[in-house]
Write a structure and sequence with these properties.
243 residues, alpha/beta, 2 domains, Rossmann fold, DNA polymerase, domain 1, globular
Protein backbone atom coordinates (compact mmCIF):
# COMPACT_ATOMS: atom_id res chain seq x y z
CA UNK A 1 0.00 0.00 0.00
CA UNK A 2 1.34 3.45 -0.91
CA UNK A 3 1.94 6.29 1.51
CA UNK A 4 0.70 9.79 0.77
CA UNK A 5 2.19 13.10 1.87
CA UNK A 6 0.49 16.48 1.72
CA UNK A 7 2.76 19.35 0.69
CA UNK A 8 1.59 22.34 2.72
CA UNK A 9 2.69 25.84 3.63
CA UNK A 10 1.85 29.49 3.13
CA UNK A 11 1.25 30.76 -0.42
CA UNK A 12 4.35 31.49 -2.51
CA UNK A 13 6.85 29.39 -0.55
CA UNK A 14 7.66 26.91 -3.34
CA UNK A 15 5.17 24.09 -2.74
CA UNK A 16 4.24 23.58 -6.38
CA UNK A 17 7.86 23.93 -7.50
CA UNK A 18 8.85 21.22 -5.02
CA UNK A 19 5.94 19.03 -6.14
CA UNK A 20 7.07 19.30 -9.77
CA UNK A 21 10.63 18.41 -8.77
CA UNK A 22 9.60 15.39 -6.69
CA UNK A 23 7.27 14.00 -9.34
CA UNK A 24 9.45 15.05 -12.29
CA UNK A 25 6.51 16.75 -13.96
CA UNK A 26 5.20 20.24 -14.59
CA UNK A 27 1.71 19.28 -13.45
CA UNK A 28 1.53 21.96 -10.77
CA UNK A 29 1.40 25.59 -11.85
CA UNK A 30 4.04 27.68 -10.08
CA UNK A 31 3.59 31.45 -10.20
CA UNK A 32 4.39 34.55 -8.18
CA UNK A 33 0.97 35.18 -6.65
CA UNK A 34 -1.03 33.68 -3.76
CA UNK A 35 -3.38 30.74 -4.35
CA UNK A 36 -1.77 29.77 -7.64
CA UNK A 37 -2.80 26.23 -6.68
CA UNK A 38 -6.52 25.77 -6.03
CA UNK A 39 -7.33 22.15 -6.76
CA UNK A 40 -4.71 19.79 -5.29
CA UNK A 41 -2.24 18.22 -7.71
CA UNK A 42 -1.45 14.55 -7.14
CA UNK A 43 1.68 12.71 -8.25
CA UNK A 44 2.99 9.21 -7.51
CA UNK A 45 6.65 8.25 -7.37
CA UNK A 46 8.06 4.73 -7.24
CA UNK A 47 10.29 4.07 -4.21
CA UNK A 48 13.60 2.49 -5.31
CA UNK A 49 14.42 -0.71 -3.43
CA UNK A 50 17.35 -2.89 -4.61
CA UNK A 51 15.94 -5.81 -2.62
CA UNK A 52 13.07 -6.13 -5.09
CA UNK A 53 15.41 -7.20 -7.88
CA UNK A 54 16.91 -9.95 -5.74
CA UNK A 55 13.49 -11.14 -4.60
CA UNK A 56 12.26 -11.16 -8.19
CA UNK A 57 15.28 -13.25 -9.21
CA UNK A 58 14.70 -15.77 -6.42
CA UNK A 59 10.97 -15.97 -7.06
CA UNK A 60 11.38 -15.83 -10.86
CA UNK A 61 8.93 -12.92 -11.04
CA UNK A 62 8.33 -11.49 -14.49
CA UNK A 63 7.33 -8.05 -13.24
CA UNK A 64 8.55 -5.82 -10.43
CA UNK A 65 6.06 -3.33 -8.98
CA UNK A 66 7.68 -1.04 -6.39
CA UNK A 67 5.68 0.62 -3.66
CA UNK A 68 4.73 4.21 -4.39
CA UNK A 69 4.88 7.45 -2.51
CA UNK A 70 2.06 9.84 -3.34
CA UNK A 71 2.53 13.59 -3.08
CA UNK A 72 -0.41 15.98 -2.90
CA UNK A 73 0.26 19.66 -3.64
CA UNK A 74 -2.30 21.45 -1.46
CA UNK A 75 -3.46 25.07 -1.76
CA UNK A 76 -1.61 27.62 0.37
CA UNK A 77 -2.89 28.40 3.84
CA UNK A 78 -3.23 31.87 5.41
CA UNK A 79 -4.11 33.22 8.84
CA UNK A 80 -7.77 32.55 9.56
CA UNK A 81 -7.91 29.36 7.49
CA UNK A 82 -9.60 27.53 10.37
CA UNK A 83 -12.43 30.06 9.99
CA UNK A 84 -12.57 29.70 6.21
CA UNK A 85 -10.21 32.52 5.18
CA UNK A 86 -8.50 32.13 1.81
CA UNK A 87 -9.00 28.54 0.71
CA UNK A 88 -9.03 27.42 4.35
CA UNK A 89 -11.91 24.94 4.34
CA UNK A 90 -10.65 23.25 1.19
CA UNK A 91 -7.08 23.20 2.50
CA UNK A 92 -8.09 21.56 5.77
CA UNK A 93 -10.26 18.96 4.05
CA UNK A 94 -7.40 18.01 1.71
CA UNK A 95 -4.79 17.73 4.44
CA UNK A 96 -7.08 15.58 6.57
CA UNK A 97 -6.82 12.85 3.92
CA UNK A 98 -3.02 12.49 3.88
CA UNK A 99 -0.78 10.28 6.04
CA UNK A 100 1.97 12.83 6.69
CA UNK A 101 2.74 16.50 6.18
CA UNK A 102 5.61 17.92 4.14
CA UNK A 103 5.71 21.50 5.40
CA UNK A 104 7.53 23.80 2.98
CA UNK A 105 9.05 26.93 4.52
CA UNK A 106 10.51 29.83 2.59
CA UNK A 107 14.13 30.28 3.67
CA UNK A 108 15.35 32.71 1.02
CA UNK A 109 15.19 36.43 0.34
CA UNK A 110 13.93 37.56 -3.07
CA UNK A 111 12.27 40.93 -3.63
CA UNK A 112 10.72 39.59 -6.84
CA UNK A 113 8.76 36.90 -4.98
CA UNK A 114 6.01 38.28 -2.76
CA UNK A 115 5.48 36.97 0.77
CA UNK A 116 1.97 37.07 2.23
CA UNK A 117 3.36 38.23 5.60
CA UNK A 118 5.62 40.89 4.06
CA UNK A 119 8.89 39.42 5.34
CA UNK A 120 10.80 36.14 5.48
CA UNK A 121 10.55 34.33 8.83
CA UNK A 122 10.18 30.55 8.47
CA UNK A 123 9.60 29.88 12.17
CA UNK A 124 6.77 32.42 12.27
CA UNK A 125 5.34 30.89 9.09
CA UNK A 126 5.48 27.39 10.58
CA UNK A 127 3.69 28.62 13.68
CA UNK A 128 1.01 30.27 11.53
CA UNK A 129 0.21 27.02 9.76
CA UNK A 130 0.41 24.93 12.94
CA UNK A 131 -1.89 27.35 14.77
CA UNK A 132 -4.56 27.09 12.08
CA UNK A 133 -4.35 23.29 12.16
CA UNK A 134 -4.63 23.28 15.96
CA UNK A 135 -7.63 25.62 15.90
CA UNK A 136 -9.39 23.37 13.39
CA UNK A 137 -8.68 20.31 15.55
CA UNK A 138 -9.85 22.09 18.69
CA UNK A 139 -13.12 23.25 17.15
CA UNK A 140 -13.99 19.75 15.97
CA UNK A 141 -13.00 18.02 19.21
CA UNK A 142 -14.83 20.47 21.47
CA UNK A 143 -18.07 19.81 19.58
CA UNK A 144 -17.52 16.06 19.90
CA UNK A 145 -16.58 16.44 23.56
CA UNK A 146 -19.89 18.12 24.44
CA UNK A 147 -21.90 15.22 23.03
CA UNK A 148 -19.71 12.63 24.73
CA UNK A 149 -19.98 14.38 28.10
CA UNK A 150 -23.78 14.20 27.93
CA UNK A 151 -23.65 10.49 27.18
CA UNK A 152 -21.02 9.87 29.86
CA UNK A 153 -23.26 11.43 32.52
CA UNK A 154 -25.80 8.74 31.69
CA UNK A 155 -23.20 6.03 32.22
CA UNK A 156 -22.35 5.34 28.57
CA UNK A 157 -19.12 3.32 28.85
CA UNK A 158 -18.08 3.95 25.24
CA UNK A 159 -18.43 7.71 25.73
CA UNK A 160 -16.41 7.54 28.96
CA UNK A 161 -13.65 5.65 27.14
CA UNK A 162 -13.59 8.17 24.29
CA UNK A 163 -13.35 11.07 26.73
CA UNK A 164 -10.28 9.44 28.27
CA UNK A 165 -8.64 9.86 24.87
CA UNK A 166 -10.12 13.21 23.88
CA UNK A 167 -9.92 15.22 27.12
CA UNK A 168 -6.10 15.43 27.34
CA UNK A 169 -5.88 16.27 23.64
CA UNK A 170 -8.40 19.11 24.03
CA UNK A 171 -6.45 20.42 27.02
CA UNK A 172 -3.22 20.40 25.00
CA UNK A 173 -4.82 22.19 22.05
CA UNK A 174 -6.30 24.82 24.37
CA UNK A 175 -2.78 25.36 25.72
CA UNK A 176 -1.45 25.90 22.20
CA UNK A 177 0.16 22.48 21.79
CA UNK A 178 -0.50 20.11 18.86
CA UNK A 179 -2.57 16.99 19.46
CA UNK A 180 0.41 14.69 18.87
CA UNK A 181 1.91 15.85 22.18
CA UNK A 182 -1.06 14.61 24.24
CA UNK A 183 -2.09 11.25 22.79
CA UNK A 184 -2.20 8.80 25.73
CA UNK A 185 0.30 5.97 25.51
CA UNK A 186 -1.19 2.96 23.76
CA UNK A 187 -3.96 5.04 22.15
CA UNK A 188 -2.12 5.94 18.94
CA UNK A 189 -4.40 3.90 16.68
CA UNK A 190 -7.53 5.27 18.34
CA UNK A 191 -6.16 8.79 17.91
CA UNK A 192 -5.65 8.18 14.19
CA UNK A 193 -9.35 7.43 13.84
CA UNK A 194 -10.11 10.95 15.09
CA UNK A 195 -8.54 12.26 11.84
CA UNK A 196 -6.86 15.15 13.59
CA UNK A 197 -4.57 17.41 11.60
CA UNK A 198 -1.94 17.85 14.30
CA UNK A 199 -1.37 14.16 15.03
CA UNK A 200 0.16 13.66 11.59
CA UNK A 201 3.97 13.39 11.40
CA UNK A 202 5.68 16.47 9.94
CA UNK A 203 8.79 16.92 7.81
CA UNK A 204 9.93 20.54 7.49
CA UNK A 205 11.43 21.41 4.10
CA UNK A 206 13.64 24.51 4.10
CA UNK A 207 13.40 25.96 0.60
CA UNK A 208 16.64 27.94 0.21
CA UNK A 209 18.32 29.90 -2.57
CA UNK A 210 20.73 28.10 -4.91
CA UNK A 211 23.86 29.30 -3.08
CA UNK A 212 22.68 27.71 0.18
CA UNK A 213 21.50 24.40 -1.29
CA UNK A 214 24.50 22.48 0.04
CA UNK A 215 24.77 23.79 3.57
CA UNK A 216 21.64 25.79 4.37
CA UNK A 217 21.55 29.33 5.76
CA UNK A 218 20.58 31.28 8.87
CA UNK A 219 16.88 30.80 8.12
CA UNK A 220 17.19 27.02 7.80
CA UNK A 221 19.26 26.82 10.99
CA UNK A 222 16.33 28.27 12.91
CA UNK A 223 13.99 25.72 11.33
CA UNK A 224 16.29 22.83 12.29
CA UNK A 225 16.36 24.08 15.88
CA UNK A 226 12.56 24.32 15.94
CA UNK A 227 12.18 20.82 14.46
CA UNK A 228 14.62 19.34 16.99
CA UNK A 229 12.63 20.88 19.85
CA UNK A 230 9.49 19.22 18.48
CA UNK A 231 11.10 15.86 17.84
CA UNK A 232 10.49 16.41 14.11
CA UNK A 233 12.85 16.30 11.11
CA UNK A 234 13.94 18.98 8.66
CA UNK A 235 15.78 18.97 5.33
CA UNK A 236 17.28 21.65 3.09
CA UNK A 237 16.41 21.85 -0.61
CA UNK A 238 16.49 24.44 -3.35
CA UNK A 239 13.25 23.58 -5.12
CA UNK A 240 14.04 25.84 -8.08
CA UNK A 241 17.25 23.90 -8.82
CA UNK A 242 15.60 20.50 -8.41
CA UNK A 243 12.74 21.47 -10.71
Amino acid sequence: MGFNCGIVGLPNVGKSTLFNALTETAAAQAANYPFCTIEPNVGRVGVPDPRLGELARIGKSQKIVPTTLEFVDIAGLVRGASKGEGLGNQFLANIREVDAIVHVLRCFEDSDVTHVEGSVDPVRDAETVETELMLADLEGLEKRQIGLQKRAKNGDKEAIAQLTLIDPIVAALQAGKPARTAVPKGEEEAAKRLQLLTTKPVLYVCNVEEASAGSGNAFSERVFAMAAAQGARAVVVSAAIEA
